[in-house]
Write a structure and sequence with these properties.
Structural class: mainly alpha
Oligomer: single chain
Radius of gyration: 16 Å
Number of helices: 3
Largest sheet: none
Helix content: over 70%
Number of strands: 0
């Protein structure tokens, strides 16, 4: 398996994991803890606040995980001529999938 296909497979796996973890948070299945969830100061204000912040954060993670899943699918379709472009676009998709939800969660928690 060539490098692009390995990257694509890793993207698919990462995207599915992020989606599943986000779904657990969105469905309020994760009680307050110190190891899993949206761990920002606002989330620890109360148990109710924990579930509110994590539900919002989980929805954001689940939504944005599709970007990296789509990037993974695209990796299986890319031709060798586009492989360098794909690597850059894939890196950007990965950074956006992780960074943008973090920023949105932080902003949302400060407004509430």
């Amino acid at each position: 398996m060539d490098t692009i296909k390995l990257i694509a497979l890793a993207d698919l796996q990462l995207g599915v994991v992020i989606f599943a973890l986000g779904l657990l948070l969105a469905l309020r299945k994760v009680p307050m803890n110190d190891s899993f969830g949206i761990r920002i100061r606002a989330a620890y204000e109360s148990e109710q606040r924990w579930y509110e912040v994590n539900a919002y954060g989980g929805r954001q993670l689940a939504i944005w995980s599709w970007l990296i899943i789509i990037a993974g699918i695209a990796g299986f379709l890319v031709t060798p001529a586009w492989s360098k472009f794909y690597i850059g676009a894939d890196l950007l998709a990965t950074l956006l999938t992780i960074g943008l939800p973090g920023l949105l969660i932080w902003r949302w928690s400060r407004r509430r």
